[in-house]
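ARCHIVE CARD
SHELF: 3
SLOT: left
DATA:
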Amino acid sequence: MQNEFWVNLPSKDLERTRKFFTDIGFNMDKVHSNAQMVSMDLGNKKVVVNVFPENMFREFIGGQQVTDAKQSNEVLFSLGANSPEEVDAWAEKAVKAGATLYAKPGYKDGWMYGCGFVDPDGHRWNLLFMDMSKMPKG
């Protein structure tokens, strides 16, 4: 566990969260997931994302108010894709599973292709393919 990176998020409905992320293809960590927590691994680097009920998350942050992610945002999660087609496929799966797109798939600056969605708890996610051969130099 040393040097692992974990992201912890609150959820208003843990089962809805579990279903959403399973439906879009995230790998659930069955060892750490239970009735009080959804745990999943992201990407080749195995970044762990843990989702907890809001009351438990509030305890972890010292009793502070939990931000309503549908009203404001502190973080944007970005997931790398291998192609524009992969971005489109992720976007389609996310919407079908209950997400809302806040940015439709498309090109930006001629070398980035991406989109953004909001998960059912209001957390924002960015899907991005970068064509490094077209990235501006200097």
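SLOT: right
DATA:
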Amino acid sequence: MRTKIAMLAAGALVLALAACGNGSGENSDGSDFPAGKQVTIVVPYSAGGASDLTARAYAQELEKELDTSVVVTNVTGSSGAIGLEQVRSSKADGYTIAYMPVESAMLKALGFTDLSTDDFTFLGRVMTIPAAVTVRADSPWDSYEDFADYAREHPGEIQVGNSGTGSIWHVAAASIEQEEDVEFTHVPFDGAAPAVAALVGGNIQAVTVSPSEVQSSVESGELKVLTVLGDERSSILPDVPTASELGVDLTVQGWGGFAVPKDTPDEVVAVLQDASGSAMNSDSVVDFLAERGYEHAYLSGPDMDAAAAEDLARFSELIPRLGIVNS
């Protein structure tokens, strides 16, 4: 009789453990995610920048959607490669999320890492920041067509500043070269701000940085923007046409999104994608982006997977041709 009772008790224990999954309230397939556990978002850049602040705005809303703690941590180095590598090598359980900048599609081609967007599954894209072709207000070019024609007739004469060799703004100017069959002299700076200062001072002839980075100088009458290379017109420069409006098939823009390691269970990815959609489209996130001149440009996880794959292929072809690799 005592043996029979022991067997019944053991059976009940097995059933109880099965009902509890891994013992933390989450089933082995992740169907109970997040089960009250903390979620960490890794930003591969320093605190206080656009990537960090965007991630923190998203984290506040994601926390509400998941009903669990969401924290942001900054892991810097190697143009973002170190932070992204930390997420790629983390346990693929949904509890570690990467902030994914456009550079995540560029790092492999630049030689910083073998990591690429193919190693992740996107939860969504939250924003874009287009390149803006900007010149001095007193320059002889009153339109993008004038600018491109002059560059075509005077190879290498126009000095175009960017935020650093291999940056998205460097790639923007190089993409114009490719599209228009022109040649610039690329001048790298340690960030967009000094590049804009050099343009205002007359030391270079153009920059291809973001609208928000030239906005104050445009408003003061020192600079003018000839075109933006975004999907749509910039919300802070609504009178400036996009390149596509001018008949130029060219889009170059920074973007920011969030992703998890590739092998994360489908059930967990579905929960995170649904919660991320609500968080990224929340009033607080939309307002935050508008205040800083970033474009709210939500894409679902699957749509962003496809968009990132396109960018990865394009940068993998363009960057080696430019010869801008990490030695």
